[in-house]
């Protein structure tokens, strides 16, 4: 099994999910503001449980996966970010890339947390998976996430359909 890393930034701790994160994780994915540009549909507790287990399994099988984001000042779970391999059925395909993703509770929006977390995660990925391409998919209406992606060096490479119109970015 892969050792799952923990990272510290000035304001955040990024660490493996724990069972006691489940209620906060479920609240994240049940929040309409969080899922508005991702799926558009809040997740049930059951769906959130499956998602949390999938995140742990990603580390085991792929050597990368998502981490919980904890705000140091408050100690609160405020979201999650990192990489996945979702094997999405879309063209052009992003299969075989490290798909970068993030989701933050609305109380954490607009504070630079996503950029702060992803900068350290991308640095880790570049060191541990040199040459492996990275990608992300973002709704064209999600201006905040488009800005985060641009700050991290992602550029639009295609527009395609996957559960609605999305933009595909590569780094």
What does this structure look like?
The protein has five helices and eight strands, in the order E-E-H-H-H-E-E-E-H-E-H-E-E. It has an eight-stranded mixed beta sheet, sandwiched between helices. It has one domain (7-134): Gcn5-related N-acetyltransferase (GNAT) (Aminopeptidase). Helix 1 (22-30) crosses helix 3. The protein is 33% helix and 26% strand. The protein has 171 residues and is an alpha+beta fold. The protein has helices at residues 22-30, 32-35, 45-62, 113-128, 143-151; strands spanning 7-8, 12-15, 66-71, 77-84, 98-104, 134-138, 155-161, 165-170. The longest helix has 18 residues, at 45-62.
Rounded to an integer in angstroms, the radius of gyration calculated over CA atoms is 15 Å
Class based on secondary structure composition and strand pairing: alpha+beta
Extract low-pLDDT stretches. none
Q: Looking at the structure, what is the overall shape?
A: globular
Oligomeric state of the chains in view: single chain
Mean pLDDT: 94
Helix content: 25-40%
Fraction in beta strands: 25-35%
Biggest sheet: strands side by side, in what order?
1-2-3-4-5-6-8-7
The helix count comes to 5
What is the terminal-to-terminal distance?
Answer: 28 Å
Q: What's the structural blueprint in terms of helices and strands?
A:
Blueprint: E1 7-8, E2 12-15, H1 22-30, H2 32-35, H3 45-62, E3 66-71, E4 77-84, E5 98-104, H4 113-128, E6 134-138, H5 143-151, E7 155-161, E8 165-170
Task: Name the features.
171 residues; 8 strands; Aminopeptidase; eight-stranded mixed sheet
């Amino acid at each position: 099994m892969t050792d799952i890393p923990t990272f510290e930034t000035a304001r955040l701790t990024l660490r493996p999910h724990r069972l006691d994160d489940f209620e906060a994780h479920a609240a994240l994915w049940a929040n309409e503001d969080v899922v508005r540009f991702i799926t558009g549909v809040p997740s049930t507790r059951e769906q959130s449980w499956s998602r949390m287990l999938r995140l742990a399994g990603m580390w085991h099988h792929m050597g990368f996966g998502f981490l919980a984001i904890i705000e140091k000042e408050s100690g609160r779970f405020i979201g999650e970010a990192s990489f996945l391999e979702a094997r999405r059925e879309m063209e052009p395909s992003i299969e075989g890339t490290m798909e970068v993703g993030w989701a933050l509770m609305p109380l954490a929006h607009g504070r630079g947390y996503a950029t702060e977390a992803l900068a350290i995660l991308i640095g880790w990925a570049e060191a541990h998976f040199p040459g492996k391409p990275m990608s992300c998919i973002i709704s064209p209406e999600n201006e905040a996430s488009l800005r985060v992606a641009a700050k991290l060096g992602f550029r639009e490479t295609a527009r395609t359909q996957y559960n609605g119109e999305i933009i595909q970015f590569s780094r």
